[in-house]
Each structure stands twice: as structure tokens, then as C-alpha cells.
């Protein structure tokens, strides 16, 4: 009986540690996001996506939450990745590895309402 209780306690502890290890990243905060660099935003991105369902939001609401869309180079065009800059907000989140970049891509309809928000990795 005591052996089984120990075993159960160990399994419970291991399960909790496994759950906590899967909860990595930095919690999202609008103020921190707006002030963060790309790497900081990448750390918050999953938390943002879990916490907020942006579908149905207006473009103005998204911009209040996240600030203006970003780019490392003001001359950079997201059309290189197949995004129409007229109906898409793109937040660059930096490199995932040496050959891939991550972006938060928010698609808007003609009324400037969010129809899709997703984290996408692109080959460079």
C-alpha cells in the first residue's frame, strides 16, 4: 500500500512537471508586446494566440492591442511571402532557425474585420 502511494505521488509529480514544461514562453501583455523586439514578441506569440481569439475583431482593435504591424526594413514587402498588404497585418517575430522566420499573420475582410489569425513559419 505504501509503495503504491509513493508510486502514485511520483507519477503525479512527473505529470505536473511535464505540464509545466509544456507551458513555456512569456505570458502575453499588450504593453510588453508593443515595447518588445521580434524575439520578445516570438516568446509571447503562443500565449497571445491562446488568450485571444482575434477573429471578428476590427483592425482598429487589433492595432490597439498589438500596435502597428512590423518589419525590420521599412522597404520590405510581405508580398514576397504571398501576402497582400491591403488585407493583411503581418507582425515579424524573427528567426526560428537559420532558414526559417516566424510571422503572426492577420487577414482582414473588406470591412477591416479579422477573418483569420495564425502563426506561420516561412522559409527564407
Structural notes for this entry:
The protein has 124 residues and is of the alpha+beta class. It has one domain (27-123). The chain has helices at residues 2-21, 30-35, 38-51, 59-66; strands spanning 88-97, 100-108, 114-123. Residues 9-22 have low confidence and may be disordered.
Topology:
Blueprint: H1 2-21, H2 30-35, H3 38-51, H4 59-66, E1 88-97, E2 100-108, E3 114-123
Antiparallel strand pairs: 1-2, 2-3
Q: Roughly how many Å apart are the termini?
A: 58 Å
Instruction: Please report which band the strand proportion falls in: under 5%, 5-15%, 15-25%, 25-35%, 35-45% or over 45%.
Output: 15-25%
Total number of β-strand segments?
A: 3
Helix content: 25-40%
Low-confidence stretches: 9-22
Enumerate how many helices there are, as a single number: 4
Widest sheet, order of strands: 1-2-3
* Mean pLDDT over the full residue set: 79
Largest sheet: 3 strands, antiparallel
Overall radius of gyration? 19 Å
Q: Give the oligomeric state of the chains in this entry, treating copies of one chain as homo and distinct chains as hetero.
A: single chain
The computed structural class is: alpha+beta
| Overall body shape | globular
- How many structurally independent domains? 1
List the helices and strands in order: HHHHEEE
